[in-house]
Amino acid sequence: MTFIIPFKYFIFISLLIITVSCETTDVEEKVIKPEPVPKIIYTPEVEETVEENAEIVEHFKDIELFLNKPLNDLILKYGKADFSKIEKIYEFHRYNTDNCRIFIQNKSSDKKIINITIYNYKDNSFIEMYSKDLCTQI
To answer: Which among 133, 115, 134 is positioned nearest to 124, based on CA atoms?
Structure first.
């Protein structure tokens, strides 16, 4: 009986060694992973930035009357905008004067002006109608 207990331990340890030693190991090949490519989340179809005009428009009198009219009529009268951003649905344009910024918004599909905003950044106020006195330095 005393012989059987050590024999059980011997068999258990032998089986354990055999199973552990039978494990095969693969030689690990070096895998070169490609560099991660930056993922572009948003790209507008067309983005256009226009340099400031060489010709400075003296005043924008009656610019409010261009609401619901084609953008080309506005460009013919006042020239290209100082800044333009064109996206899928809307286009945004900005004209600069001494103290004011005039923001024009139109639809990209039919080029009709849907919003005109005149902002006096010196006074931090919005103006209903363009005024040469409020928007130019005297």
So the answer is: 134
CATH, domain 63-135, list 3.90.1530, 1.10.10, 1.20.1250, 3.30.1450: 3.30.1450
- Angle, CA 90 vertex, CA 131 and CA 47 arms, to 5°: 100
Mean per-residue pLDDT, 76-90: 88
Distances in Å between the Cα of 103 and the Cα atoms of 45, 87, 90, 127, 131 are 21, 15, 13, 12, 15
How far apart CA 90 and CA 107 sit, in angstroms, is: 5
pTM passes above 0.70: no
